[in-house]
């Protein structure tokens, strides 16, 4: 479902579509000037990764990365690498969409810039974000802002409509270890119902935290750059998984950090409790540094086969 420009908020029909299906496509979510500025910063960051030989606090490297041919799976926490990513989030139409779906008090949980390299950039196996970080309520969503055109060939996001209203599927391997991906043979995983979300640069997807989603390898000759903002209603507090982030901060720093992450409105010390299905993401994979590492070291079974850095049917 497309939202035509100009967009300052969403209609009742569009909100109802999101509630029912768990996703939305919004065209022209940012201005051409905002898009050009973010693209320039992004390519500057990718160019900076030429000097990096192992994944670090900024870059997750894809297989085959080199100074001559920089290949990344992700730029971590982009809003901390350059202010333009935060400034665009709070100063563009994105904020109005968030208010329409989450209410007046919205915070950023985290951000990531997934940078699938041309010619086999890594897949992300099917999963539900909720399996990684359940909260006191499920008013959480992810915004995926397309910095370049996304089509069928360069690893677009795929979703299963309505899956956000269903169960939380197991995200464990055969040994019971959290691998961050669902079993392709699980009876409640209906891959045949998947919808592919493609669009022009400047468009954005929105998907609910309990939505089943994944993305195939990038088999095109173009980069697939999608900036993901994971956002939540301010009264949604983490239970586990994401809670470890809060537990690392002293209380005073935690309160200051909450204010810094507010996209709009104010934080609250009164979590809203809603009975939702929850699975705890434990025991952890051997390397849980990113979803790519969790899925690979946890032995996730692949829906997409051996492309994009996979090995022996595992996600790479």
How far is the first residue's CA from the last residue's CA? 31 Å
Biggest beta sheet attributes: 9 strands, mixed
Q: Indicate the overall shape.
A: globular
Low-confidence stretches: 2-8, 306-316
* Radius of gyration over all CA atoms, rounded: 18 Å
Treating each run of at least 4 consecutive H or I residues as one helix, how many helices?
8
Encode the helix/strand succession as letters. EHEHEEHHHEEEEEEEEHHEH
Strand content: 15-25%
Number of DSSP E strands? 13
Average residue pLDDT: 90
Helix content: 10-25%
Structural class, judged by helices and strands?
alpha+beta
Quick tags:
single chain; 316 residues; alpha+beta; nine-stranded mixed beta sheet; four-stranded antiparallel beta sheet; 8 helices; 23% helix; globular; disordered N terminus
Descriptive notes:
By secondary structure, this protein is an alpha+beta fold. It has helices at 12-21, 32-48, 78-81, 83-91, 93-102, 243-247, 251-260, 291-297; strands at residues 2-3, 23-26, 59-61, 72-76, 106-116, 124-127, 140-146, 157-159, 195-197, 204-208, 213-215, 224-233, 262-264. Strands 1, 2, 3, 4, 5, 7, 10, 12 and 13 form a nine-stranded mixed β-sheet that branches. Strands 6-11-8-9 form a four-stranded antiparallel β-sheet. It is globular. It starts with a strand and ends in a 19-residue tail after the last helix. The relative contact order is 0.20.
Write a concise synopsis of the structure shown.
With about 325 residues, the chain is α+β, with helices and mostly antiparallel strands.
